[in-house]
Design goal:
Radius of gyration: 21 Å
Order of helices and strands: EHEHEHEHHEEEHHEEEEEEHEEEEEHHH
Number of strands: 18
Strand order of the largest sheet: 6-5-18-15-8-9
Structural class: alpha+beta
Distance between the termini: 48 Å
Helix content: 25-40%
Largest sheet: 6 strands, antiparallel
Strand content: 25-35%
């Protein structure tokens, strides 16, 4: 704090997510409290630059460092602020915005600046997977595979994500994982294993609806193999916050887990995919990062969700295609075409 004011840096990633950053600096200048803050705005210029800026902010004793971008930018900034006195702020401008949504940060830029003006700061847990910090989720199996596909697609947004799920999901082969935690060692054949600090991946897709970022625990979600008829119900549960009640889902909590799979492969941390070895360690760091929060903790009024609407329509009409699926040797194509047709109408 300098001259009675908090020092704050806004780190803007001009190319992240689906939102244009044009006009961001003007909105910050217009809406940020001049009485409370001395501010500066820095635009990133290359991969990893946000982490470097945030680290310098922490070293220089800034009070708040704000990530302006998507989940990748938030992760970059946040990992440089762990175990420091500099708090993370978020102006969500990405395609998923998982951490911002969990913390009830408004998706509207002006409203998110209003949250920063209130400057309420709290400490939260974060996780580490094979040495890489994550703040929402990490995982392996299908969600890591889809993260790779999503990164390769060159497009962002929920429709692209669902298209990748539909095109690849029902062809994906489950793997066998040996999972060791505080209770012992267990063997699982799984479609995916996710470790959640926060409730959702982003886009209001809730992989761990009951997750808390203050309990020192991760929620571990094991999705067992399922067939083509189960897929739409699982997808609906993901968006309806009811995944934990699905018979194909097994969950437990842990502070540390070790996972062994037969070969090296992809994992993701906050949606960013990376190839890693066959053995995976995940552990929680209790209350290791300070974050500017919404003091009202009330989510924005729900907006129509085209993805959820598509899944809902699809599931409601599933009985209409069951006979076709049973007769057809191309049941995956039948389901995908129906779903993609409904998505294209929105």
């Amino acid at each position: 704090m300098k001259n009675g004011k908090m020092r704050i840096t806004f780190i803007v990633n001009p190319i992240s997510g689906t939102h244009s950053k044009e006009g961001i600096a003007e909105l910050i200048e217009k809406n940020l409290s001049k009485d409370r803050f001395d501010q500066r705005i820095v635009f990133t210029e290359y991969a990893g630059h946000a982490a470097e800026i945030a680290k310098a902010c922490a070293n220089e004793g800034y009070d708040i460092c704000v990530a302006v971008g998507g989940d990748g930018t938030v992760n970059e900034v946040a990992r440089s602020l762990t175990h420091t006195n500099t708090a993370l702020g978020i102006i969500p401008c990405g395609s998923g915005n998982g951490l911002a949504r969990h913390l009830c940060i408004p998706m509207d830029v002006k409203k998110s600046i209003e949250i920063i003006n209130k400057a309420q700061i709290e400490a939260f847990d974060y996780g580490i997977v094979n040495g890489l910090p994550f703040f929402c989720t990490c995982g392996m199996g299908f969600d890591a595979f889809i993260s790779l596909k999503f990164a390769e697609s060159g497009k962002r947004g929920p429709i692209t994500y669902v298209e990748n799920v539909l095109k690849e999901g029902l062809k994906y082969k489950p793997e066998t994982y040996v999972v060791e935690d505080e209770t012992g060692t267990h063997r699982h054949k799984a479609f995916l294993i996710a470790c959640a600090n926060a409730a959702q991946y982003g886009n209001n897709a809730y992989i761990a609806p009951g997750a808390s970022m203050k309990d020192g625990m991760m929620d571990v979600i094991i999705m067992e193999p399922f067939d083509v008829i189960d897929a739409p119900k699982i997808a609906m549960d993901l968006f309806a916050k009811t995944l934990s009640s699905n018979s194909r889902i097994k969950t437990f909590q842990a502070r540390h887990i070790h996972i062994h799979r037969s070969t090296a492969g992809a994992i993701h941390y906050d949606g960013d995919p990376i190839m890693t070895e066959a053995d995976i360690d995940v552990e929680m760091q209790p209350l290791g990062i300070k974050v500017v929060v919404n003091p009202d903790t009330i989510e924005d009024e729900a907006q129509p969700n085209p993805v959820l609407n598509a899944f809902s329509d699809f599931f409601n009409n599933i009985n209409n295609v069951r006979e076709d699926i049973a007769r057809s040797g191309h049941r995956i194509q039948v389901l995908n075409k129906l779903m993609l047709r409904k998505l294209s109408r929105r």
